[in-house]
Amino acid sequence: MPADQLLIGAHTSISGGVHQALLRGKQIGATTIQIFTANQKQWVGRPIPEEEIALWHETLASLNIKKVMSHDSYLINLGTPKEDNLAKSLNAFEAEIKRCLDLKLSFLNFHPGAATGDTEENCLNRIVESLLKMEPLFEQNSGLTLLIEATAGQGTSVGHRFKHLAHIIQGVKGKLPIGVCIDTCHIFCAGYDIRNQEAWEKTLTEFDQVVGLDYLQALHVNDSKHPLGSRKDRHESLGKGEIGAEGFRAMMQHPKLREIPKYLETPHGDTMWKDEIALLREFAG
């Protein structure tokens, strides 16, 4: 695939209507985008009006933007042992899936969860149980795939080891469309080196052995303010952090990563994303 057709974009705002995110993507040269379908800091998101959904589909049909991804609310914790919080998380996640289905999105990216006082194993099992409750929403093939986001390992969050991702996938595969979104900052801070071609090869080999590369369906592309294995999630502009430009050049040139959809979440987006998208295409050659 030519570099100008690779699916590279960023997280764009839906302010003014969900279709505005698509137009903002076009302005920065994106061929894919990520959005919040509702306020990511509130439990209850407003339903998207029918006329807004229609305008979304009309706008999308007019643009060269594909594989749009939603990021779920930061409040959702599908692995919490706290019953009230779990109930709110399940309701919010179900509502998010329904909004994604209305917009006919390709991916719903979600943070797996945090143990918050319970064991890691119980947390992972609870995430599986929570996801399986969503099975009725996928009885018809909608084209939507749930993507577990690999985490940096802050606090009691799970998802920072490849074995965590594999555990969740094994629990739901065949019942739900499931995959993984690797965040470059997150896995680096979790201890997986990706600073050059050799490091990427080692990390992807381990991912393939533990999870399976077929499940890797998207990448969040962010440099890191903190060093390898720090377990601190702080994004940095490409080439300005601890991963460095060579790591992203290797990513764009790797045959198993080149054509996977990529979404920037780097700082200073309004001023930097157009240049960073162009930089990634340049790295792709």
Automatic annotation (TrEMBL):
The lineage of its organism: Bacteria, Pseudomonadati, Chlamydiota, Chlamydiia, Parachlamydiales. Keywords: DNA damage, DNA repair, Endonuclease, Hydrolase, Metal-binding, Nuclease, Zinc. The keyword Nuclease applies. HAMAP family: Nfo (MF_00152). It is an enzyme of class 3 (hydrolase). Its cofactor is Zn(2+). GO terms for molecular function: deoxyribonuclease IV (phage-T4-induced) activity; DNA binding; DNA-(apurinic or apyrimidinic site) endonuclease activity; phosphoric diester hydrolase activity; zinc ion binding. Zn(2+) 3 binds at H186, D233, H235. One of its GO terms (biological process) is base-excision repair. This is Probable endonuclease 4. Pfam families: AP_endonuc_2. Zn(2+) 2 binds at E149, D183, H220, E265. Residues 26-282 form the Xylose isomerase-like TIM barrel domain. SMART domains: AP2Ec. Endonuclease IV plays a role in DNA repair. It cleaves phosphodiester bonds at apurinic or apyrimidinic (AP) sites, generating a 3'-hydroxyl group and a 5'-terminal sugar phosphate. It catalyses: Endonucleolytic cleavage to 5'-phosphooligonucleotide end-products. It comes from Simkania negevensis (strain ATCC VR-1471 / DSM 27360 / Z). Its EC number is 3.1.21.2. Signal peptide: none annotated. Binds 3 Zn(2+) ions. InterPro entries: AP_endonuc_2, AP_endonuc_F2_Zn_BS, Xyl_isomerase-like_sf, Xyl_isomerase-like_TIM-brl. Zn(2+) 1 binds at H71, H111, E149. The keyword Hydrolase applies.
